[in-house]
């Protein structure tokens, strides 16, 4: 192997916007290739070189213990809890724990900047990655941009600005690439705050999803697939619309998700220091996974703004997951009355807390495994991490 000179990335040229990316149709537009760090793309790209176990070892001091179910599902962690802000941030995705941690880190001088994603002036769902240096800029990035977002496209600016202490907020594929080039950024300290992520879409795909699912696609300001087995849409006028998962037009939506997300097995953002989502927590609460000491330090900063409770788990997901596999595969859509009924029944007796998170992970991993087997059989062995093979192995898959 030839040694890479420390400034080698400066000689690489960012790829032109819109040009074909090295991961081809599997590219999730994480932003790395928009910078001179494209030099490292073959090692760094989550869709070319899956290396979660090695990077866990490097950044958390160990990789998942495959004899521990919680490690297999949720990744390396030292703590997990349910939490919510006692005073939620208006307009945040949930209660705004992510934005609050970022603001606290900036205010206390732990970091000089925060990589996060605002939206463009013209389009509330069009991502605009920034390096925020004020609390106002962090707040302007609150709420999900439910589209592929090139968060890493601002990485060149980090090095040029001379910043030495940085917080990056991002989803799994962005964080995998970031970890792979972390030591090239010239930083003294990098903090990584992750969210889980699944079923993301291009901006065009998002429009199709909204058009097929919501009663008023143009007024949606926020949506989430919630723990009550319904999609919740919030509209401009403050009203909430709910649509049961089982009533989604699966046949029309089958191709809406980005191919990158159909081959992703890093739902829980394995390489972040701290992960803030919702799916392992009771309805209305957020779910926090502390992966290492850095993550614990970050969470400590906002503990006095949070109400917390231990994680819980209830129900048994297996049969529901097994039933969902052929239903998704065949693109079955239930009539709305049946979907609502099924939603009510499953909410009463279905999986809750961590078991709901396992339900969601199992459903997505089995679907994605089948997709890979059919479309990228040669990549299957290297690309699917061992923990995911274990999860998928519990179910009977169609050919
Ligand atoms: P806020 O304080 O509102 O802050 C949100 C932060 O997310 C902002 O800092 C912003 O920079 C960042 N962000 C927004 N959009 C993107 C994007 N496209 N890429 C990278 N960063 C972004 N959690 C689950 O438990 N299960 C899921 O299935 C799940 N799916 C998700 C899918 C997507 C596409 C995204 C972006 C997040 C998903 N999450 C999921 C995380 C969850 O929806 C919340 O983002 C999380 O709980 C934080 O809420 P908050 O109120 O603390 O965030
Ligand atoms: Fe480049 Fe990121 Fe696309 Fe991979 S996913 S090809 S690293 S932009």
Automatic annotation (TrEMBL):
InterPro entries: Co_F420_Hydgase/DH_bsu_N (IPR007516), FRHB/FDHB/HCAR-like (IPR045220), FrhB_FdhB_C (IPR007525). Residues 80-156 form the Coenzyme F420 hydrogenase/dehydrogenase beta subunit N-terminal domain. It comes from the Bacteria. Pfam families: FrhB_FdhB_C, FrhB_FdhB_N. Residues 164-311 form the Coenzyme F420 hydrogenase/dehydrogenase beta subunit C-terminal domain. GO terms for molecular function: oxidoreductase activity, acting on CH or CH2 groups, with an iron-sulfur protein as acceptor. This is Coenzyme F420 hydrogenase/dehydrogenase, beta subunit C-terminal domain. It comes from Thermoleptolyngbya sichuanensis A183.
């Amino acid at each position: 192997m030839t040694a890479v000179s420390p400034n080698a990335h400066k000689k690489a040229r960012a790829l032109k916007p819109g040009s074909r990316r090295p991961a081809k149709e599997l590219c999730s537009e994480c932003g790395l290739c928009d910078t001179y760090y494209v030099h490292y793309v073959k090692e760094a790209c989550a869709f070319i070189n899956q290396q979660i176990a090695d990077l866990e070892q490097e950044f958390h001091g160990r990789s998942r213990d495959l004899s521990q179910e919680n490690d297999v599902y949720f990744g390396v962690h030292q703590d997990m809890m349910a939490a919510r802000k006692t005073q939620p941030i208006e307009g945040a995705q949930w209660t705004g724990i992510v934005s609050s941690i970022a603001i606290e880190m900036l205010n206390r001088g732990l970091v000089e900047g925060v990589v996060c994603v605002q939206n463009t002036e013209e389009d509330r769902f069009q991502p605009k990655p920034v390096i925020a240096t004020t609390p106002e800029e962090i707040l302007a990035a609150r709420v999900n941009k439910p589209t592929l977002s090139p968060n890493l496209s601002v990485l060149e600016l980090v090095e040029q600005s001379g910043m030495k202490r940085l917080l990056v907020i991002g989803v799994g594929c962005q964080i995998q690439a970031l970890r792979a080039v972390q030591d090239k950024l010239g930083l003294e300290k990098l903090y990584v705050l992750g969210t889980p992520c699944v079923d993301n879409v291009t901006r065009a795909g998002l429009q199709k999803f909204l058009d097929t699912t919501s009663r008023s696609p143009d007024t949606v300001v926020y949506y989430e697939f919630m723990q009550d087995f319904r999609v919740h849409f919030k509209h401009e006028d403050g009203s909430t619309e709910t649509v049961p998962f089982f009533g989604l037009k699966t046949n029309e939506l089958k191709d809406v998700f980005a191919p990158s997300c159909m081959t992703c097995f890093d739902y829980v953002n394995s390489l972040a220091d701290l992960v803030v989502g919702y799916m392992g927590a009771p309805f209305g609460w957020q779910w926090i996974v502390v992966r290492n000491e850095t993550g614990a330090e970050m969470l400590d900063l906002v503990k006095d703004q949070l109400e917390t409770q231990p994680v819980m788990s209830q129900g048994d997901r297996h049969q529901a997951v097994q039933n969902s596999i052929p239903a998704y595969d065949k693109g079955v859509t239930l009539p709305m009355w049946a979907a609502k009924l099924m939603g009510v029944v499953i909410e009463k007796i279905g999986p809750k807390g961590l078991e709901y998170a396992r339900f969601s992970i199992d459903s997505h991993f089995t679907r994605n495994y089948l997709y890979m087997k059919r479309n990228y059989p040669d990549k299957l062995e290297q690309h699917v991490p061992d923990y995911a093979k274990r999860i998928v192995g519990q179910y009977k898959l169609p050919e």
